[in-house]
Amino acid sequence: MATIKQEDFIQSVADAFQFISYYHPVDFIRAVREAYEQEESPAAKDALAQILINSRMAAEGHRPMCQDTGTAIAFLRVGMNARWDTTMTIEEMVNEGVRRAYTHPDNVLRNSVLHDPDGRRVNTGDNTPAVTHVELVPGDKVEVIVAAKGGGSENKSKFAMLLPNDSVVDWVLAQVPTMGADWCPPGMLSIGIGGTPEKAMLMAKWAMMEPLDIHELKARGPSTRAEELRLELYEKVNALGIGAAGLGGLTTVLDVKVVDYPTHATSKPVALLPNCAATRHAHFVLDGSGPAQLDPPDLDEWPKLELDFSSSRRVNLDTLTREDVAKWKAGERLLLSGKLLTGRDAAHKRIADIAAKGEQLPVEFRNRFIYYVGPVNPVRDEAVGPAGPTTSSRMDRYVDAMLSRHGLIGMVGKSERGPAAIEAIKKHRGVYCIAIGGAAYLVSKAIRRSKVLAFPELGMEAIYEFEVHDMPVTVAVDSTGEAVHKSGPREWRIKIGKIPVTA
Asked: Which pLDDT score, from 0 to 100, does residue 503 have?
């Protein structure tokens, strides 16, 4: 009978969360590599290249592949005959493992978890508490799955109580376009059908940890209704043409998981959960023989790619004018150099509150660019840790004031902007660019210096000033209001030709 020791469990959890911060699962890399080789959209192919290059850099440098190091999640299947040598509860042990992992001095991870979520929203400082799920199973071993789930993909989770005769396929195809690129495609969609609302959501989250094996399923053919749905949704979601980073292309999802459970005769609960391009999870089993050992993947699984910047426009942020910006076109690739401000949700709210009081802002925004980012803290000689973009639409409500009242000239973030933000960009002749979600470590290498200018108490949400050199971005909304997240998917949906384009 296995005896699971407290320290073995805690250290295994800590090691696993460190491991998944910089190692993608190999099945994911293989799937992205295949998507890259097959992609015909130049913009999507560039995004896939950045994701692959970033992933290899993270694996080699043992630094996070994404600045959003996620909510810590642990799934446990505990053998009912296992013995425990511990003074702590399972949740307390998981939290201690998370605490060790996220504060590790050699690879500090970003703390994103907040107390009092509908009130003061104060950072817990160590990314605890984790979200822990426990299932009792036969045997005397403990199977553990740890996952780090970023906010961009979690925020696009969907749930519905469909009528018994409603089509799950139709519902999913209606939901996915509304998710845009905020969830950082390409990734996986995981769907739970049946049971009760909470059962459907939990089934979908568990299934998200399974290997990517859609091509094996295609080769052998489906044997259940759930497998039929997987294949149908895989083909039809990719036919939407959303593509990598939402820029339009052949691959939006690398796999689709479907799990079902018996449900009430009047019900059809359906949960839809996306997993992003920073897919992170690890599996291990404790049998009483000591802490788990996780084997690093073979770096030969990663293709050796280099980005081609020969057609990119070099931009000096320190001398940039609104007239210069007016020359840029949606879809154009840029390399930014110079001083770049940062700011996201909390900072923008502070700015709005200060302006409403008629007080002077602590930072001058006129003719400046702002980057929506919450970076990881640096280690060793880094100017900043991994610093990929956050979801830009959360700042849409502030765009008009930032461009008109405060004189901002441009923004860098992730995914699409809403209609009001696009109209403000067009009205004030500004510009919005994107960096690639899922390429945070790659982006950070373009940041040479960093200093906090305002609101240091906000931590990663403070306003920084980065000094960047050749930071790769793409013009997503130009000064005329042309938006690539509208034109790109529409173009590729028409090219693929399997799903009609509606007005």
From this structure: 55
Does the pTM exceed 0.90? yes
- The answer to whether residues 459 and 302 touch, using CB atoms and an 8 Å cutoff, is no
DSSP secondary structure of 61-98: HTS-SSS---EEEEEEEEETT-EEE-SS-HHHHHHHHH
**C-alpha distances in angstroms, 156 versus 8, 75, 210, 272?**
35, 21, 20, 9
pLDDT tens, position by position, 136-168: 999 999 999 999 999 999 999 999 999 999 999
Sign of CA dihedral 328, 333, 335, 339: positive
Q: Does residue 503 lie within any of the structural domains?
A: no
Structural domain span for residue 217: 151-277
* Total number of domains constituting the chain: 3
Containing 33, the helix (H) or strand (E) segment is: helix 26-38
Dmax (CA) for the chain in angstroms is 74
What is the b/e burial string over 298-321, where b = at least 16 CB atoms within 10 angstroms of the residue's CB?
eeeebeeeeeeeeebeebebeebe
Does residue 125 sit in the same domain as residue 157?
A: no
With respect to residue 296, please indicate whether it lies within any of the assigned structural domains.
Answer: yes
Strands 253-261 and 71-79: unpaired
Tens digits of per-residue pLDDT, 277-335? 999 999 999 999 999 999 999 999 999 999 999 999 999 999 999 999 999 999 999 99
- Give the separation between CA 446 and CA 407, rounded to whole angstroms: 25
Q: Where are the beta strands (DSSP E) in 2-141?
A: 3-5, 71-79, 83-85, 114-115, 122-123, 131-137
